[in-house]
Design a protein that fits this description.
With about 210 residues, the protein is α+β, with helices and mostly antiparallel strands. It has nine helices and eight strands. The strands form three sheets. The chain has a three-stranded antiparallel β-sheet. Strand 2 and strand 3 form a beta hairpin. Helix 1 packs across helix 3, helix 2 crosses helix 3 and helix 5 crosses helix 7.
Length: about 210
């Protein structure tokens, strides 16, 4: 295969992979600055070659559109993967941040950091990735900061029927969170809170999904 043709097909593959849904041939052509017929011929060649190579994915035509998908013979492997997902591991840092959000929700990131005493960007983002925390709105204050709260997945993982059913926690415990965060960052006299970063604690809790 010529180098230019190889690059052209790679571009088609990139477009279909990035979109994840059926893309009209005309839209692919516009994205690659070519004509529809050229795209259709290239995809036809790709379909045949991928089948011969027994690749894990294929390109299917849906009317005038094309979509990349997993080949049907590999569906059982995907089903087994979904039935045995990797369980997220919650470090002390993540558990602490999750506790603050759970008991103070809806809460802004700035409020989380005031309680913990350290930057919490990484912790909040990781909790969002684990589907335990989500954006629930905007605060009515300058800048309209994002408000965070827990999700239904959080309730399911921790066996709680509702946010109101969370066990009581005292203000003293929240103060303990702040003190632990300061120790995690290296002591309250070393660096201003806004410059401290989340540390890596050895303690982990595996959440059952």
């Amino acid at each position: 295969m010529e180098k230019e043709q190889q690059k052209f097909e790679a571009a088609i593959e990139a477009v279909l992979f990035a979109e994840g849904h059926a893309v009209p041939a005309g839209d692919i052509a516009k994205a690659l600055e070519t004509d529809t017929e050229t795209v259709q011929r290239a995809i036809s060649d790709m379909q045949k070659r991928w089948l011969e190579e027994e690749r894990g994915v294929e390109i299917v035509q849906l009317e005038d559109s094309y979509q990349m998908r997993t080949r049907k013979e590999f569906y059982p492997a995907l089903v087994r993967l979904e039935l045995n997902p990797q369980k997220p591991r919650l470090t002390d840092v993540l558990l602490e941040t999750l506790s603050v959000i759970a008991y103070r929700q809806p809460v802004t990131k700035a409020e989380i950091e005031r309680i913990r005493g350290v930057n919490s960007d990484h912790a909040v983002n990781r909790l969002i990735e684990y589907h335990l925390v989500e954006e629930v709105g905007r605060a009515k204050q300058p800048g309209r900061p994002i408000l965070f709260g827990t999700t239904r997945e959080f309730l399911r993982c921790f066996g709680v029927s509702s946010k109101e059913a969370l066990p009581d926690i005292s203000p003293v415990k929240l103060e303990d969170f702040r003190e632990e965060a300061e120790e995690e960052a290296g002591g309250e006299n070393e660096t201003p809170a806004e410059n401290k970063k989340d540390g890596n604690n050895d303690g982990e809790v595996q959440v059952g999904i």
